[in-house]
Design goal:
By secondary structure, this protein is of the alpha+beta class. The protein contains nine helices and ten strands. Strands 3, 4, 5, 6, 7 and 10 form a six-stranded antiparallel beta sheet that branches. InterPro entries: Homeodomain-like_sf, HTH_AraC, HTH_AraC-typ_CS.
């Protein structure tokens, strides 16, 4: 059932299932992220046998066919959303609820199945705590609607979850640079020092930056800044979060520093970027 936003008199087409039993999966007209936190389950996914061992994420779409074969002490939760939830939508005090034709495309490939991709993604110890935190907040907000920006926060965490999973599954190679990239993609919302990256990559500063230059075309900390700004762009476009909230969500300690860096790299302020991106995407 859609959620009625009690602050803005609108239906929000999302659901949170605190105890997913897989019986109703896939949900009609919904994309679903299922977080398996313990146990294991054997399923037929589009007639293909798949074993899911916790902790893992299953990304399923309304077109999938899922049949449970066997479960062993499974505990899981699901967040479901209609594809229209990915439309940029914001609220105007003068015009009410506005939708645009902009689409969030972060992580949509995670739901597509082929001979290689089953939609199942392992969540190791480094990823688990972030996923647990973000799922907990999304579930709480669906039920509590703690303030008028509860939908923005859910969309923020959804963007972060899908973005992180997408980045982490681009490469399975555990090279020094990929280890540092993995650390960035998981922890970019927290304070990160160059020493943190050299430690996880097992390289000194010079070697790490040289490797980053060879592969990414920039230093490790420059990549971190670029990635934070990339996530910030999605949050600015698709949510009504304040600049301070966007800054904190993307690892900037102060919104003034975030504004300075964004303006220097993008040639416009975050507010100008938000207005421009939404104006460009308005339905005619």
């Amino acid at each position: 059932m859609p959620q009625m936003d009690r602050y803005k008199n609108r239906n929000v087409y999302i659901e949170f299932v605190a105890n997913e039993d897989f019986i109703n999966l896939p949900y009609e007209e919904r994309l679903t992220i299922t977080f398996i936190t313990s146990g294991s389950i054997n399923i037929l996914l589009n007639d293909r046998p798949v074993k899911i061992v916790s902790p893992s994420i299953l990304c399923s779409s309304m077109d999938d066919k899922i049949q449970v074969i066997e479960k062993h002490n499974v505990a899981s939760q699901s967040f479901c959303f209609h594809p229209d939830f990915f439309n940029t939508a914001h609220f105007s005090e003068t015009k009410g609820y506005l939708s645009t034709n902009l689409k969030i495309d972060i992580g949509l490939a995670l739901f597509k199945k082929d001979n290689i991709n089953t939609g199942v993604y392992a969540a190791d110890d480094k990823v688990y705590l972030k996923l647990y935190e973000w799922f907990f907040v999304m579930g709480t907000e669906v039920y509590a609607q703690s303030d008028s920006l509860w939908v923005c926060r859910i969309k923020k965490y959804l963007i972060q979850i899908l973005g992180m999973l997408e980045e982490l599954n681009l490469s399975s190679e555990k090279s020094p640079v990929n280890l540092a990239l993995e650390y960035i993609h998981i922890n970019y919302s927290d304070k990160i020092r160059l020493e943190d990256l050299t430690r996880c990559a097992h390289l000194n500063r010079v070697s790490l930056n040289k490797s980053f230059q060879d592969i990414c075309g920039c230093t490790a900390m420059a990549y971190l800044l670029a990635y934070r700004l990339k996530v910030a762009e999605s949050l600015l476009t698709h949510t009504d979060m304040s600049l301070n909230e966007v800054a904190r969500a993307t690892g900037f300690e102060y919104d003034t520093y975030f504004i300075k860096q964004f303006t220097a790299k993008r040639g416009m302020t975050p507010t100008e970027f938000r207005n421009t991106s939404r104006e460009f995407g308005k339905c005619q």
